[in-house]
């Protein structure tokens, strides 16, 4: 049972709200490099993978938040108008 508790520590170590997008991406890149090297024990690799997935989710959430806040100014007949940002996800 102690091992289950250790897996829960991964989320606490990340402290998602405290990380900026840039910090999360940097941490994610470090994790990917470690995993790609193949020089980590299996248990460590699993923990790194879980942390990486959490960071990936955090980055995705932060990007979605920014996407919702982006507005494009579009010049129309009535002058400049605000239009919500149209992300590429919906186009695919």
Automatic annotation (TrEMBL):
Where does the source fall among the domains of life?
A: Bacteria
Query: What's the catalysed reaction?
Result: Exonucleolytic cleavage in either 5'- to 3'- or 3'- to 5'-direction to yield nucleoside 5'-phosphates
UniProt-listed Pfam families:
Exonuc_VII_S (PF02609)
- Where is the protein localized? Cytoplasm
Record-given protein name: Exodeoxyribonuclease 7 small subunit
Subunit composition and interactions: Heterooligomer composed of large and small subunits.
Q: Which GO terms describe its molecular function?
A: exodeoxyribonuclease VII activity
- One of the GO BP terms on file: DNA catabolic process
What EC designation does it have? Answer: 3.1.11.6
What protein family does this chain belong to?
Belongs to the XseB family.
Which UniProt keywords are given for this protein, alphabetically ordered? Cytoplasm, Exonuclease, Hydrolase, Nuclease
Function, in words: Bidirectionally degrades single-stranded DNA into large acid-insoluble oligonucleotides, which are then degraded further into small acid-soluble oligonucleotides.
Where is it chiefly localized? Answer: cytoplasm
Q: Which organism is it from?
A: Cohnella cholangitidis
- Output the Gene Ontology cellular-component terms: cytosol; exodeoxyribonuclease VII complex
HAMAP family annotated for this entry? Exonuc_7_S
Q: What is the lineage of its organism?
A: Bacteria, Bacillati, Bacillota, Bacilli, Bacillales
């Amino acid at each position: 049972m102690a091992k289950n508790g250790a897996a829960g520590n991964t989320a606490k170590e990340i402290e998602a709200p405290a990380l900026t997008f840039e910090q999360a991406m940097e941490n994610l890149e470090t994790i990917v490099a470690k995993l790609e090297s193949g020089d980590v024990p299996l248990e460590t690799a699993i923990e790194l993978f879980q942390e990486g997935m959490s960071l990936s989710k955090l980055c995705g959430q932060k990007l979605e938040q920014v996407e919702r806040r982006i507005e494009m100014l579009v010049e129309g007949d009535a002058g400049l108008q605000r239009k919500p940002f149209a992300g590429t996800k919906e186009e695919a």
